[in-house]
Amino acid sequence: MTIITLYKQGESQRKIARLVGHDRKTVRRIINLYKEKGVIEPIRKQKESALDGHKDLIIKLMEKDISGVRIHEELIKEGLKISYPSVARYLENIKGKNNVCVRFHTKAGEEAQVDFGYVGLLPSKNGKKAKAWVFNMRLSYSRLDYYEIVNDQKVETFLMCHINAFRNFRGVPKLVRIDNLKAAILEANFYEPVYQRAYKAMSEHYGYEIIPCRVRKPQEKGKVEAGIKYVKSNFFKGRSFANRVDVENQLNDWVKYKCNSRVHGTTKKVPQEVFLSEEKKCLKELPIRPYTIGILAKRKVCKDCHITVAGSYYSVPYKYVGKLVEVQIREKLISILHEGKEIAVHKKSEEKGLFITNASHYNKYKLFNPESNEYRSSYQEKMKQIGSFAGKLFIVILDKKPNSWYRTTRGILSLKTLYDDHTIDLACKRALAFEITEYSTVKNICKTGSYNLPIDNEVAHATAYN
User: Fold this and answer.
1) DSSP class of residue 284?
2) Which residues make Cβ contacts (< 8 Å) with residue 314, sequence separation at least 6?
3) CA atoms of 91 and 295, how far apart (whole Å)
4) For the chain, what is the largest distance between any 2 Cα atoms, rounded to a whole number of angstroms?
5) Which 3 state secondary structure label does DSSP give 154?
6) How far apart are CA 288 and CA 291, in angstroms?
7) Number of C-beta neighbours around residue 211 at 10 A
8) In the prediction, which pLDDT does 55 show?
9) Are residues 180 and 188 in contact, defined by beta-carbon separation less than 8 angstroms?
10) Where does residue 266 fall: left (phi above 0), alpha (psi -120 to 50 degrees), or beta otherwise?
11) 207: phi > 0 → left, psi -120 to 50 → alpha, else beta; which?
């Protein structure tokens, strides 16, 4: 650079060589480079990196938000022998040292962005101070803002804020860009987001698409981020509030007369004016009825395959015993979900303490019990297979022993291991004649062979049970 400076001042190559202490050939070469290519500083030779051949793989991993340590591990698996610091430097060169972000532009009515921002302790509805957040939905084109103060970030609260915002705008954008909030996204995965069932259902009701921001990519919802910062700095700081109503009234006035009526710093336009003249007509119409949120809760499924909701008991399929399920309580229905999938629906009980049970929720073998028709029918069929008298005796036993019939029946059936069906059936014939329903007596008749003895009034007794 010194050589070029002296050359520009009109010094000869001989004198320049003498002043800088370099050979005249070197001076001549540098001056020629300047004259031919405009080079005014040394050209550093770029060294090839051992990672250049793996650049495509590295970029693919970076796009998945994989850390430098994990990328280094993957390169080692590929057979590359290289240190982690070398990989870190290479990643830095690809990323660039400055944080560069892309500005997203949207059309009128196309997008809204939503987020929560913590605003400290504020008067709550019960008069005491409590933690508070401000919900912001901002229309990306006009920058029109809707703000609402809340005391939690539950699913119900998140949904209600959306409903209020749509009502305020008198329309719905084509898509809503959200942060990876627990209220909206169960798993922060840009490619396969798992939405809370209620939020997904609400988006379908209003007809908008949910677009979650990628993890650690706040610039994707930069408009609403700016909206949160703006309301914190320009409304909440330095103000005092008498109560919750005062907070809400002051916020509504500020939004109407200041926030949405000022000239926006980026667009250089007034949000309210842009909204009325351009964006309002591009929003989708509100549905005739607003979305019904219902009450959302979580319950653990008990061993009897039931959960408790508002004092009543509702059955759940047996495979969910011991697991945590989500409950959506509507006006007339109880919906039970597990990991976003509906697993049971019941009509809401009008009384407390009632068991609302779907028999199919139990395992089949649990339903196969002495009180079930299926259970009784199976034993009756087994007795009939022994013989007609055994089948008739079963009916008598069932009538006289409604609570323990199965014990006697099982005993008689167990005699099949010792005697043939004909012998047991004749023993049952004698038992019928003497109105006997005890297993021990039937067993003794078989053992002693008394089933072959004559019976007084045999026909009368035996036919009495037809």
Assistant:
1) B
2) 306, 307, 334, 336, 344, 346, 349, 356
3) 48
4) 151
5) coil
6) 10
7) 16
8) 80
9) yes
10) alpha
11) left
Instruction: Report yes or no: 343 and 314 within 8 Å, Cβ to Cβ.
Output: no
Residue 297 backbone dihedrals phi, psi, to 5 degrees: -150, 170
Cα(433)–Cα(459) distance, rounded to whole angstroms? 8
Buried b (16+ CB within 10 A) or exposed e, 290-325: ebebbebeebebeeebbbebeebbbbbbbebeeeeb
Q: Pull the structure tokens for residue 63.
A: 């796009």
Locate 242 and state its tokens. 């008498």
d(CA 108, CA 122): 35
Residues 62, 345: Cα–Cα separation, whole Å: 44
Helix locations, 21-129, DSSP H: 24-37, 55-63, 68-77, 84-95
Q: Are 367 and 359 in contact (CB under 8 A)?
A: yes
Q: How far apart are CA 350 and CA 347, in angstroms?
A: 9
pLDDT of residue 458: 47
**What single-letter DSSP state applies at residue 248?**
H
Q: Which phi and psi (to 5°) does residue 135 adopt?
A: -90, 135
SS3 for 175?
Answer: strand
CA 127 to chain CA centroid, Å, is 34
Which residue ranges of the chain lie beneath pLDDT 70?
38-48, 65, 96-104, 180-195, 213-221, 294-296, 331, 340, 363-372, 456-466
Tokens of 108: 């009128």
DSSP 311: T
Closest to 391 (Cα-Cα) out of 447, 429, 440, 418 = 429
DSSP 413-434: HHGGGTS-HHHHHHHHHHHHHT
Per the structure block, which two tokens stand in for 130? Answer: 């409590």
Distance CA 54, CA 91 (A): 12
DSSP-derived 3-state class of residue 227: helix
pLDDT recorded at residue 422:
93
Residue in the block written with tokens 């329309």: 171
| The residue count for the chain | 466
Residues with Cβ within 8 Å of residue 428, at least 6 apart in sequence: 386, 387, 389, 390, 392, 393, 412, 442
pTM of the model: 0.52
Buried b (16+ CB within 10 A) or exposed e, 113-149: bbbbbebeebbbeeeeeeebbbbbbbbbbbbbbbbbb
